[in-house]
Design brief:
This protein is of the alpha/beta class. Helix content is 51%, strand content 14%. Helix 5 links the parallel strand 5 and strand 6.
Length: 208
């Protein structure tokens, strides 16, 4: 009598820049009989490269990572690999969920989620379902709507890592005058005294 074929395991990539947390997730999820951790990374760029190389079923990405955050990494991965992405975050800023859903992320959970519950979420997402933590979803529903245009958001996003309008313009491939107009408009809409204050508020709301 032949033994039944073993069910295919869910191939998982984990990316988190906090080594202790990443190691704990690898160890705990690796104990699940139907989950196999095939790669891990400590930044978004490496996560995208490893996803292309290993082609996992699920990518479990921390939201806040260096080089490319979880949503930036998710966009790169989903454009190149047939996989599904779950975002894990410690600080669920309201607007981030909307950005995540727009980028076709399949799951959004807090880092406080127990490992066994996270394993269930991974199984559901691997089966084609979507999972959004109820508390995060409720906060997103009552959050302030973003009044900024995409280009205004882009200018504020770049301004968080550069020191001059000229550098922002170079990064966005725009004229400095155009960038000043975007920044001035964003400051006015957010009632901010400086572009840095506007960028901080947009970040706190999860818009960038």
């Amino acid at each position: 009598m032949t033994e039944p074929a073993q069910a295919r395991r869910i191939r998982l990539l984990i990316a988190d820049d906090e080594h202790l947390i990443r190691g704990a997730m690898e160890a705990l999820l690796g104990l699940e009989p139907d989950i196999e951790v095939v790669a891990s990374a400590d930044n978004g760029v490496t996560a995208a490269e490893l996803a292309a190389a290993t082609r996992p079923d699920i990518c479990l990405l921390d939201l806040e990572m260096p080089q490319a955050d979880g949503l930036e990494a998710a966009a790169k991965i989903l454009a190149a690999v047939n996989t599904r992405v779950i975002i894990v975050t410690r600080h669920a800023r309201p607007g981030v969920l909307r950005r995540a859903l727009a980028s076709k992320v399949s799951g959004f959970v807090p880092k406080s989620t127990p490992a066994q519950e996270l394993a269930h979420v991974i199984r559901d997402v691997a089966a084609g379902k979507r999972y959004i933590d109820p508390d995060i979803a409720a906060a997103a529903l009552t959050a302030e709507r973003c009044p900024l245009t995409d280009r205004e958001l882009d200018a504020l996003r770049v301004s968080r890592s550069t020191t001059s309008v000229a550098q922002i313009a170079q990064a966005m491939h725009l004229a400095p005058g155009t960038v000043r107009n975007y920044l001035s408009s964003a400051m006015m809409k957010l009632n901010a005294a400086s572009r840095h204050e506007a960028a901080d508020r947009a970040w706190q709301q999860g818009w960038i």
